[in-house]
Amino acid sequence: MSDIGTPSGIDRRTLLKGAAVAGVAAWTAPMIIDSVTSPAAAASGATIPCSWFYVAFKKPGDSVVYWTGSNSNACNTLSTNNAGTTCKTCGGTTYSLFNGQGVMKYGSQCGSGTSATAAGASCSQFIAINGATVQAIGGATILAAFSHPSSSLSCACPNNTNSGNSITVCGSSAGGGNCDAQSN
Known about the structure:
- The chain is α+β, with helices and mostly antiparallel strands.
- The protein folds into two domains: about 10-40; about 45-184, no CATH class.
- The chain has helices at about 10-35, 40, and strands spanning about 55-60, 65-70, 85-90, 95, 105, 115, 115-120, 125-130, 135, 140-145, 155, 165-170, 180-184.
- A hairpin with a 2-residue loop joins strand 3 (about 85-90) and strand 4.
- The chain is elongated and about 80 Å long.
- The relative contact order is 0.18.
């Protein structure tokens, strides 16, 4: 019995420390994986190549038109248009973005209609930004976009109105950049 009192293997303290580390890793792993694979993580691509943009979109199963803006690579980071009032008709609906305001309206003519609802913090569940490409995610559909690439506004309609569509922002602003009407 000469080995009584001599440690052979791992002592209790080392075993408990190892179990605690393993427990923390197992507990946090699902949160780390979820944060990397979430729609919000998808919204963290390359920064937009212009001053800012606004986009009008619909959430799945919802008739409300929402808007959000960005001056980085995350939605909901911009609230005021500073480049003049402009309008763009997409799919038979006219979208108006007003100078000096964080307001977008939609209806049958430029400058009037129903106020779109600000998307707020939930926008990252529905809009992903990767440079000049804005992608509808989570079943959303992009309806129109306004951007400020240089001296005046640029406007765009998506190529289709299917959920998961995308739109390119920050295009040429020469001559109003395909906007239907523009005034400062």
